[in-house]
Amino acid sequence: MKINHITQLKPDSKVIIFAFLQDENFETHLQKTCTDFGLNFELLKQDFKADLKEFSFIYSPQNQKVIFLGLGKKPNSSDIIKAFRTLFFKQKPNLPNDLTIDIQNLPDEYLEYVVIGSMLGGYDLDLYKSERKETAPIFKKEGFFNILSNNPKAEEGIVRGKYISKTQMQVFDLMNAPANKKTPYTLAKWAVDSGAKFGYSVTVLEKQQLKTQKLEALLAVGQGSEHPPVLIVMEYKSPEAKQKVGLVGKGVTFDTGGISIKASTNMHLMKSDMGGAAAVMGTIELAAKLRLPVHLIGIIPACENAVDGKSFKPSDVINSYSGKTIEIIDTDAEGRLILADGLNYLVRNYQPDTMIDLATLTGSCVATLGYHAAGMFTNNDKLAQNLTKAADQTGERLWRLPLWDVYKEDISSDIADVRNFSGKPMAGAISATKFLEVFTENHQNWAHLDIAGTAFGDTEFAPQRAGTAFGVRLLLEFLEMITK
Hints:
With 484 residues, the chain is an alpha/beta fold. The protein has helices at residues 26-37, 41-47, 77-91, 110-120, 154-176, 184-198, 207-212, 216-222, 275-289, 335-350, 363-369, 381-394, 428-437, 472-482; strands at 2-6, 15-20, 55-59, 65-70, 98-102, 144-148, 201-205, 230-237, 244-249, 251-255, 295-305, 317-318, 326-327, 354-359, 374-377, 398-400, 418-419, 446-450, 456-458, 465-467. The longest helix has 23 residues, at 154-176.
Protein backbone atom coordinates (compact mmCIF):
# COMPACT_ATOMS: atom_id res chain seq x y z
CA MET A 1 0.00 0.00 0.00
CA LYS A 2 1.30 3.45 -0.96
CA ILE A 3 0.26 6.85 0.35
CA ASN A 4 0.53 9.78 -2.05
CA HIS A 5 0.17 13.49 -1.40
CA ILE A 6 -1.89 15.27 -4.05
CA THR A 7 -2.96 18.92 -4.36
CA GLN A 8 -5.75 18.41 -6.91
CA LEU A 9 -8.52 15.85 -7.05
CA LYS A 10 -7.96 13.17 -9.65
CA PRO A 11 -10.91 13.11 -12.10
CA ASP A 12 -10.95 9.30 -12.12
CA SER A 13 -11.26 8.94 -8.31
CA LYS A 14 -13.93 6.34 -7.58
CA VAL A 15 -14.04 6.81 -3.79
CA ILE A 16 -13.52 10.15 -2.07
CA ILE A 17 -13.59 10.62 1.71
CA PHE A 18 -14.31 14.02 3.23
CA ALA A 19 -13.79 14.66 6.95
CA PHE A 20 -15.70 17.42 8.75
CA LEU A 21 -15.32 19.14 12.07
CA GLN A 22 -18.55 19.96 13.87
CA ASP A 23 -17.78 23.68 14.00
CA GLU A 24 -19.16 26.97 12.70
CA ASN A 25 -17.81 26.20 9.21
CA PHE A 26 -19.39 22.75 8.97
CA GLU A 27 -22.42 23.63 6.84
CA THR A 28 -20.37 25.88 4.55
CA HIS A 29 -17.88 23.09 3.86
CA LEU A 30 -20.62 20.50 3.48
CA GLN A 31 -22.57 22.68 1.05
CA LYS A 32 -19.48 23.30 -1.10
CA THR A 33 -18.78 19.58 -1.27
CA CYS A 34 -22.37 18.87 -2.27
CA THR A 35 -22.21 21.56 -4.96
CA ASP A 36 -18.92 20.22 -6.34
CA PHE A 37 -20.32 16.71 -6.67
CA GLY A 38 -23.92 17.50 -7.60
CA LEU A 39 -25.37 16.23 -4.30
CA ASN A 40 -28.50 17.39 -2.48
CA PHE A 41 -27.24 19.49 0.43
CA GLU A 42 -30.64 19.92 2.12
CA LEU A 43 -31.24 16.18 2.29
CA LEU A 44 -27.71 15.32 3.36
CA LYS A 45 -27.52 17.81 6.24
CA GLN A 46 -30.64 16.21 7.76
CA ASP A 47 -28.82 12.88 8.10
CA PHE A 48 -25.19 13.86 8.59
CA LYS A 49 -24.27 15.97 11.64
CA ALA A 50 -20.49 15.35 11.76
CA ASP A 51 -20.63 13.64 15.16
CA LEU A 52 -17.42 11.86 16.11
CA LYS A 53 -17.02 8.63 14.08
CA GLU A 54 -20.31 9.20 12.24
CA PHE A 55 -20.12 8.43 8.56
CA SER A 56 -22.50 8.43 5.60
CA PHE A 57 -21.98 7.77 1.92
CA ILE A 58 -23.75 8.63 -1.30
CA TYR A 59 -23.07 8.18 -5.01
CA SER A 60 -22.60 11.27 -7.16
CA PRO A 61 -24.10 11.65 -10.65
CA GLN A 62 -20.59 10.83 -11.94
CA ASN A 63 -20.88 7.45 -10.14
CA GLN A 64 -18.29 8.39 -7.52
CA LYS A 65 -18.74 7.06 -4.00
CA VAL A 66 -18.53 10.07 -1.68
CA ILE A 67 -18.03 9.27 2.02
CA PHE A 68 -18.64 11.87 4.74
CA LEU A 69 -16.83 11.32 8.06
CA GLY A 70 -17.54 13.29 11.25
CA LEU A 71 -14.80 14.29 13.68
CA GLY A 72 -16.95 15.93 16.36
CA LYS A 73 -16.52 19.34 17.97
CA LYS A 74 -13.07 19.42 19.56
CA PRO A 75 -11.32 16.14 18.78
CA ASN A 76 -7.91 15.30 20.18
CA SER A 77 -5.46 13.33 18.08
CA SER A 78 -6.73 10.02 19.47
CA ASP A 79 -10.30 10.90 18.45
CA ILE A 80 -9.20 11.63 14.89
CA ILE A 81 -7.23 8.39 14.70
CA LYS A 82 -10.19 6.38 16.02
CA ALA A 83 -12.62 8.04 13.60
CA PHE A 84 -10.55 7.11 10.56
CA ARG A 85 -9.69 3.69 11.94
CA THR A 86 -13.39 2.98 12.51
CA LEU A 87 -14.32 4.04 8.99
CA PHE A 88 -11.65 1.92 7.31
CA PHE A 89 -12.13 -1.04 9.64
CA LYS A 90 -15.86 -1.20 8.87
CA GLN A 91 -15.73 -0.24 5.20
CA LYS A 92 -12.53 -1.87 3.95
CA PRO A 93 -14.29 -4.84 2.24
CA ASN A 94 -16.23 -2.30 0.18
CA LEU A 95 -13.31 -0.11 -0.85
CA PRO A 96 -11.33 -0.33 -4.10
CA ASN A 97 -7.55 -0.36 -4.27
CA ASP A 98 -7.39 3.37 -4.99
CA LEU A 99 -9.13 6.14 -3.06
CA THR A 100 -8.74 9.78 -2.07
CA ILE A 101 -9.02 11.40 1.34
CA ASP A 102 -9.73 15.14 1.10
CA ILE A 103 -8.56 16.94 4.26
CA GLN A 104 -8.18 20.44 2.84
CA ASN A 105 -10.68 21.80 5.37
CA LEU A 106 -8.82 20.35 8.37
CA PRO A 107 -5.87 21.83 10.31
CA ASP A 108 -2.49 20.84 8.89
CA GLU A 109 -1.45 18.85 11.96
CA TYR A 110 -4.37 16.45 11.45
CA LEU A 111 -2.70 14.86 8.43
CA GLU A 112 -0.47 12.60 10.53
CA TYR A 113 -3.46 11.36 12.54
CA VAL A 114 -5.47 10.72 9.37
CA VAL A 115 -2.68 8.51 8.06
CA ILE A 116 -2.32 6.63 11.35
CA GLY A 117 -6.05 5.98 11.69
CA SER A 118 -6.46 4.93 8.07
CA MET A 119 -3.60 2.46 8.26
CA LEU A 120 -4.69 1.03 11.60
CA GLY A 121 -8.06 0.36 10.02
CA GLY A 122 -6.40 -2.43 8.06
CA TYR A 123 -5.33 -4.35 11.18
CA ASP A 124 -7.11 -7.66 11.71
CA LEU A 125 -6.89 -9.67 14.92
CA ASP A 126 -6.65 -13.15 13.37
CA LEU A 127 -2.99 -13.92 13.97
CA TYR A 128 -3.26 -17.69 14.22
CA LYS A 129 -6.43 -18.58 12.35
CA SER A 130 -6.03 -21.37 9.83
CA GLU A 131 -8.12 -19.39 7.36
CA ARG A 132 -7.27 -15.72 7.61
CA LYS A 133 -9.39 -13.01 6.06
CA GLU A 134 -8.26 -11.90 2.65
CA THR A 135 -6.57 -8.52 2.80
CA ALA A 136 -8.84 -5.75 1.53
CA PRO A 137 -7.70 -4.36 -1.86
CA ILE A 138 -6.82 -0.95 -0.43
CA PHE A 139 -4.36 -2.54 2.03
CA LYS A 140 -2.58 -4.74 -0.51
CA LYS A 141 0.75 -3.78 -2.09
CA GLU A 142 -1.03 -2.29 -5.08
CA GLY A 143 -3.33 -0.17 -2.88
CA PHE A 144 -3.13 3.64 -3.12
CA PHE A 145 -4.20 6.26 -0.56
CA ASN A 146 -4.24 9.70 -2.12
CA ILE A 147 -4.19 12.45 0.52
CA LEU A 148 -5.57 15.72 -0.85
CA SER A 149 -4.07 18.45 1.31
CA ASN A 150 -2.61 21.95 1.10
CA ASN A 151 -0.25 21.23 3.98
CA PRO A 152 3.28 22.30 2.91
CA LYS A 153 4.71 19.59 5.18
CA ALA A 154 2.38 16.88 3.93
CA GLU A 155 5.16 14.49 2.92
CA GLU A 156 6.68 14.71 6.40
CA GLY A 157 3.30 14.06 8.01
CA ILE A 158 2.68 11.05 5.78
CA VAL A 159 6.06 9.53 6.64
CA ARG A 160 5.49 10.06 10.37
CA GLY A 161 2.02 8.59 10.18
CA LYS A 162 3.28 5.50 8.35
CA TYR A 163 6.16 5.00 10.79
CA ILE A 164 3.96 5.35 13.86
CA SER A 165 1.11 3.16 12.63
CA LYS A 166 3.44 0.36 11.48
CA THR A 167 5.15 0.27 14.87
CA GLN A 168 1.82 0.37 16.67
CA MET A 169 0.60 -2.61 14.68
CA GLN A 170 3.72 -4.53 15.68
CA VAL A 171 2.91 -3.69 19.29
CA PHE A 172 -0.65 -4.95 18.72
CA ASP A 173 0.78 -8.26 17.51
CA LEU A 174 3.05 -8.56 20.54
CA MET A 175 0.23 -7.78 22.94
CA ASN A 176 -2.28 -10.08 21.28
CA ALA A 177 0.02 -13.08 20.91
CA PRO A 178 -0.73 -15.97 23.32
CA ALA A 179 1.73 -17.20 25.92
CA ASN A 180 2.88 -20.22 23.91
CA LYS A 181 3.83 -17.91 21.04
CA LYS A 182 5.42 -15.22 23.21
CA THR A 183 8.26 -15.98 25.60
CA PRO A 184 10.94 -13.71 27.06
CA TYR A 185 13.16 -14.74 24.15
CA THR A 186 10.44 -13.62 21.70
CA LEU A 187 10.67 -10.08 23.09
CA ALA A 188 14.45 -10.23 22.92
CA LYS A 189 14.40 -11.34 19.28
CA TRP A 190 11.95 -8.57 18.38
CA ALA A 191 14.30 -6.00 19.92
CA VAL A 192 17.40 -7.45 18.23
CA ASP A 193 15.69 -7.50 14.82
CA SER A 194 14.36 -3.96 15.26
CA GLY A 195 17.76 -2.66 16.35
CA ALA A 196 19.47 -4.22 13.35
CA LYS A 197 16.88 -2.72 11.00
CA PHE A 198 16.71 0.80 12.43
CA GLY A 199 20.24 1.33 13.70
CA TYR A 200 20.29 1.10 17.48
CA SER A 201 22.13 -1.28 19.78
CA VAL A 202 20.54 -4.16 21.67
CA THR A 203 22.12 -6.32 24.35
CA VAL A 204 20.39 -9.34 25.82
CA LEU A 205 21.51 -10.66 29.22
CA GLU A 206 20.59 -14.32 29.47
CA LYS A 207 20.29 -16.50 32.56
CA GLN A 208 23.96 -16.99 33.35
CA GLN A 209 24.71 -13.31 32.83
CA LEU A 210 21.77 -12.41 35.08
CA LYS A 211 23.30 -14.62 37.77
CA THR A 212 26.75 -13.14 37.31
CA GLN A 213 25.42 -9.58 37.56
CA LYS A 214 23.07 -10.54 40.42
CA LEU A 215 19.73 -9.52 38.92
CA GLU A 216 18.24 -11.83 41.50
CA ALA A 217 14.72 -10.41 41.72
CA LEU A 218 14.23 -11.01 37.98
CA LEU A 219 15.68 -14.50 38.33
CA ALA A 220 13.40 -15.30 41.27
CA VAL A 221 10.22 -14.42 39.39
CA GLY A 222 11.28 -16.43 36.36
CA GLN A 223 12.65 -19.48 38.12
CA GLY A 224 9.38 -21.46 37.92
CA SER A 225 9.17 -21.27 34.13
CA GLU A 226 10.76 -23.46 31.47
CA HIS A 227 11.46 -20.22 29.59
CA PRO A 228 14.39 -18.47 31.28
CA PRO A 229 14.23 -14.74 32.00
CA VAL A 230 16.26 -12.17 30.09
CA LEU A 231 17.15 -8.52 30.50
CA ILE A 232 16.90 -6.61 27.23
CA VAL A 233 18.92 -3.40 26.96
CA MET A 234 18.03 -1.18 23.98
CA GLU A 235 20.03 1.97 23.32
CA TYR A 236 19.50 4.62 20.67
CA LYS A 237 21.95 7.52 20.77
CA SER A 238 21.64 10.45 18.40
CA PRO A 239 24.78 12.51 17.69
CA GLU A 240 22.60 15.56 18.44
CA ALA A 241 21.29 14.15 21.74
CA LYS A 242 20.02 16.86 24.07
CA GLN A 243 18.72 14.60 26.84
CA LYS A 244 19.48 11.15 28.22
CA VAL A 245 16.18 9.41 28.93
CA GLY A 246 15.76 5.96 30.42
CA LEU A 247 12.63 3.85 29.97
CA VAL A 248 11.83 0.64 31.83
CA GLY A 249 9.00 -1.66 30.78
CA LYS A 250 7.53 -4.61 32.65
CA GLY A 251 7.87 -7.66 30.41
CA VAL A 252 5.96 -10.53 32.05
CA THR A 253 4.98 -12.56 29.00
CA PHE A 254 2.42 -14.52 31.02
CA ASP A 255 1.41 -14.15 34.64
CA THR A 256 -0.29 -17.01 36.45
CA GLY A 257 0.24 -15.23 39.74
CA GLY A 258 2.70 -17.94 40.69
CA ILE A 259 2.05 -19.79 43.94
CA SER A 260 -0.40 -16.97 44.82
CA ILE A 261 -2.32 -18.14 41.78
CA LYS A 262 -4.87 -15.96 40.05
CA ALA A 263 -8.50 -16.93 39.58
CA SER A 264 -9.04 -18.75 36.28
CA THR A 265 -11.82 -16.44 35.07
CA ASN A 266 -9.59 -13.86 33.45
CA MET A 267 -6.18 -15.49 33.63
CA HIS A 268 -6.08 -15.83 29.84
CA LEU A 269 -5.82 -12.05 29.65
CA MET A 270 -2.46 -12.20 31.41
CA LYS A 271 -0.76 -12.68 28.05
CA SER A 272 -0.93 -8.86 28.06
CA ASP A 273 1.23 -8.43 31.16
CA MET A 274 4.10 -7.21 29.01
CA GLY A 275 2.27 -4.03 27.95
CA GLY A 276 4.91 -1.81 29.52
CA ALA A 277 7.67 -3.63 27.66
CA ALA A 278 5.78 -3.32 24.37
CA ALA A 279 5.34 0.43 24.88
CA VAL A 280 9.05 0.92 25.57
CA MET A 281 10.09 -1.23 22.62
CA GLY A 282 7.77 0.63 20.27
CA THR A 283 8.97 4.01 21.52
CA ILE A 284 12.65 3.22 21.00
CA GLU A 285 12.00 1.90 17.51
CA LEU A 286 10.14 5.11 16.65
CA ALA A 287 12.85 7.32 18.14
CA ALA A 288 15.34 5.57 15.87
CA LYS A 289 13.05 5.75 12.82
CA LEU A 290 12.44 9.47 13.32
CA ARG A 291 16.03 10.24 14.34
CA LEU A 292 15.04 12.12 17.46
CA PRO A 293 17.84 14.17 19.06
CA VAL A 294 17.93 12.09 22.24
CA HIS A 295 20.01 9.46 23.99
CA LEU A 296 17.39 6.82 24.81
CA ILE A 297 17.88 3.69 26.88
CA GLY A 298 15.21 1.03 27.21
CA ILE A 299 15.43 -1.68 29.85
CA ILE A 300 13.09 -4.66 29.55
CA PRO A 301 13.18 -7.24 32.36
CA ALA A 302 11.33 -10.13 30.70
CA CYS A 303 10.14 -13.35 32.27
CA GLU A 304 7.19 -15.68 32.73
CA ASN A 305 5.60 -16.06 36.17
CA ALA A 306 4.65 -19.74 36.23
CA VAL A 307 3.57 -22.32 38.83
CA ASP A 308 6.13 -25.04 39.43
CA GLY A 309 8.02 -26.81 42.19
CA LYS A 310 10.84 -24.36 41.55
CA SER A 311 8.64 -21.26 41.79
CA PHE A 312 9.43 -18.67 44.41
CA LYS A 313 7.04 -18.69 47.36
CA PRO A 314 5.27 -16.35 49.76
CA SER A 315 7.54 -15.82 52.80
CA ASP A 316 10.72 -16.15 50.71
CA VAL A 317 13.36 -13.48 51.13
CA ILE A 318 15.15 -12.75 47.87
CA ASN A 319 18.00 -10.49 46.88
CA SER A 320 17.99 -7.83 44.16
CA TYR A 321 20.41 -6.06 41.84
CA SER A 322 20.52 -3.13 44.27
CA GLY A 323 21.68 -5.38 47.12
CA LYS A 324 18.46 -4.78 49.07
CA THR A 325 16.57 -7.82 50.33
CA ILE A 326 12.87 -8.32 49.64
CA GLU A 327 10.33 -10.31 51.64
CA ILE A 328 7.78 -11.97 49.37
CA ILE A 329 4.24 -11.63 50.66
CA ASP A 330 2.46 -12.33 47.39
CA THR A 331 3.99 -13.92 44.29
CA ASP A 332 1.33 -12.20 42.19
CA ALA A 333 3.03 -8.89 43.02
CA GLU A 334 5.82 -9.95 40.67
CA GLY A 335 5.93 -7.00 38.29
CA ARG A 336 7.36 -4.66 40.87
CA LEU A 337 10.12 -7.20 41.59
CA ILE A 338 11.44 -7.31 38.03
CA LEU A 339 11.00 -3.55 37.70
CA ALA A 340 13.11 -3.13 40.86
CA ASP A 341 16.03 -4.81 39.11
CA GLY A 342 15.33 -2.98 35.85
CA LEU A 343 15.15 0.46 37.44
CA ASN A 344 18.26 -0.06 39.51
CA TYR A 345 20.19 -1.43 36.55
CA LEU A 346 19.23 1.68 34.57
CA VAL A 347 20.25 4.11 37.32
CA ARG A 348 23.58 2.50 38.13
CA ASN A 349 24.73 1.83 34.58
CA TYR A 350 23.36 4.81 32.64
CA GLN A 351 22.52 7.68 35.06
CA PRO A 352 19.70 9.07 32.90
CA ASP A 353 18.48 12.66 33.19
CA THR A 354 14.89 11.43 33.15
CA MET A 355 13.57 8.00 34.03
CA ILE A 356 10.08 6.63 33.29
CA ASP A 357 8.78 3.13 33.84
CA LEU A 358 5.57 1.65 32.48
CA ALA A 359 3.81 -1.44 33.75
CA THR A 360 0.51 -3.25 33.77
CA LEU A 361 1.08 -3.30 37.49
CA THR A 362 -2.03 -3.26 39.70
CA GLY A 363 -5.72 -4.02 39.70
CA SER A 364 -5.91 -1.24 42.25
CA CYS A 365 -5.19 1.32 39.52
CA VAL A 366 -7.95 -0.19 37.38
CA ALA A 367 -10.36 0.06 40.29
CA THR A 368 -9.42 3.72 40.72
CA LEU A 369 -9.33 4.95 37.11
CA GLY A 370 -11.10 2.25 35.11
CA TYR A 371 -10.05 1.66 31.53
CA HIS A 372 -9.85 5.30 30.46
CA ALA A 373 -6.70 6.56 32.15
CA ALA A 374 -3.36 5.37 33.48
CA GLY A 375 -2.07 6.25 36.93
CA MET A 376 0.93 8.59 37.05
CA PHE A 377 3.21 8.77 40.08
CA THR A 378 6.07 11.22 40.46
CA ASN A 379 7.42 13.69 42.98
CA ASN A 380 8.71 15.93 40.19
CA ASP A 381 6.10 18.56 39.30
CA LYS A 382 7.78 19.58 36.05
CA LEU A 383 7.92 15.98 34.86
CA ALA A 384 4.27 15.52 35.80
CA GLN A 385 3.33 18.64 33.83
CA ASN A 386 5.23 17.52 30.73
CA LEU A 387 3.79 14.01 30.80
CA THR A 388 0.28 15.38 31.32
CA LYS A 389 0.72 17.82 28.44
CA ALA A 390 1.91 15.00 26.18
CA ALA A 391 -0.99 12.79 27.28
CA ASP A 392 -3.52 15.53 26.59
CA GLN A 393 -2.09 15.92 23.09
CA THR A 394 -2.23 12.20 22.25
CA GLY A 395 -5.47 11.43 24.09
CA GLU A 396 -3.75 8.81 26.27
CA ARG A 397 -5.00 10.10 29.58
CA LEU A 398 -2.87 10.21 32.73
CA TRP A 399 -4.05 11.03 36.23
CA ARG A 400 -1.57 11.91 38.95
CA LEU A 401 -1.84 9.98 42.21
CA PRO A 402 0.01 10.69 45.48
CA LEU A 403 3.42 9.35 46.38
CA TRP A 404 3.60 10.54 49.99
CA ASP A 405 6.04 8.98 52.45
CA VAL A 406 3.18 8.11 54.80
CA TYR A 407 2.64 5.07 52.54
CA LYS A 408 6.14 3.72 53.27
CA GLU A 409 4.79 1.74 56.20
CA ASP A 410 2.88 -0.45 53.76
CA ILE A 411 6.11 -1.95 52.44
CA SER A 412 8.11 -2.20 55.67
CA SER A 413 9.29 -5.68 56.59
CA ASP A 414 10.36 -7.23 59.88
CA ILE A 415 12.96 -9.53 58.38
CA ALA A 416 14.07 -7.88 55.12
CA ASP A 417 14.78 -4.40 53.79
CA VAL A 418 11.36 -4.18 52.17
CA ARG A 419 8.34 -6.37 51.38
CA ASN A 420 6.64 -6.60 48.01
CA PHE A 421 3.01 -6.26 49.11
CA SER A 422 1.21 -4.50 51.94
CA GLY A 423 -1.46 -7.18 52.34
CA LYS A 424 -4.06 -4.42 52.62
CA PRO A 425 -7.09 -4.18 50.30
CA MET A 426 -6.42 -0.49 49.69
CA ALA A 427 -3.91 1.92 48.13
CA GLY A 428 -2.37 -0.96 46.20
CA ALA A 429 -1.12 1.14 43.28
CA ILE A 430 0.45 3.67 45.65
CA SER A 431 2.23 1.12 47.85
CA ALA A 432 3.50 -0.64 44.72
CA THR A 433 5.02 2.63 43.54
CA LYS A 434 6.58 3.27 46.95
CA PHE A 435 8.20 -0.13 46.58
CA LEU A 436 9.64 0.84 43.18
CA GLU A 437 10.88 4.14 44.60
CA VAL A 438 13.25 2.23 46.89
CA PHE A 439 15.20 1.05 43.84
CA THR A 440 15.51 4.38 42.02
CA GLU A 441 18.45 5.60 44.14
CA ASN A 442 16.38 8.70 44.99
CA HIS A 443 16.36 9.79 41.36
CA GLN A 444 14.85 13.28 41.23
CA ASN A 445 13.28 13.01 37.78
CA TRP A 446 11.45 9.68 37.79
CA ALA A 447 7.85 8.79 36.97
CA HIS A 448 5.95 5.52 37.17
CA LEU A 449 2.98 4.92 34.86
CA ASP A 450 0.56 2.17 35.88
CA ILE A 451 -1.09 1.20 32.59
CA ALA A 452 -2.97 -1.87 33.85
CA GLY A 453 -6.34 -0.54 32.68
CA THR A 454 -5.26 0.99 29.38
CA ALA A 455 -2.77 -1.34 27.69
CA PHE A 456 -5.26 -4.09 26.89
CA GLY A 457 -8.93 -3.29 26.64
CA ASP A 458 -12.32 -3.63 25.02
CA THR A 459 -12.33 -2.05 21.57
CA GLU A 460 -14.70 -1.89 18.64
CA PHE A 461 -11.99 -3.45 16.50
CA ALA A 462 -11.96 -6.85 18.22
CA PRO A 463 -14.68 -9.16 19.58
CA GLN A 464 -12.76 -9.47 22.85
CA ARG A 465 -10.10 -7.42 24.59
CA ALA A 466 -7.01 -6.52 22.58
CA GLY A 467 -3.78 -4.56 22.71
CA THR A 468 -4.03 -0.78 22.40
CA ALA A 469 -0.33 0.27 22.11
CA PHE A 470 -1.01 2.71 24.96
CA GLY A 471 2.07 4.72 25.79
CA VAL A 472 3.83 4.63 22.42
CA ARG A 473 2.49 7.92 21.05
CA LEU A 474 2.49 9.42 24.55
CA LEU A 475 6.20 8.75 25.06
CA LEU A 476 7.03 9.89 21.54
CA GLU A 477 5.21 13.18 22.14
CA PHE A 478 6.99 13.59 25.48
CA LEU A 479 10.42 12.97 23.95
CA GLU A 480 9.82 15.43 21.14
CA MET A 481 8.58 18.00 23.66
CA ILE A 482 11.67 17.89 25.88
CA THR A 483 14.17 17.82 23.02
CA LYS A 484 12.90 20.86 21.11
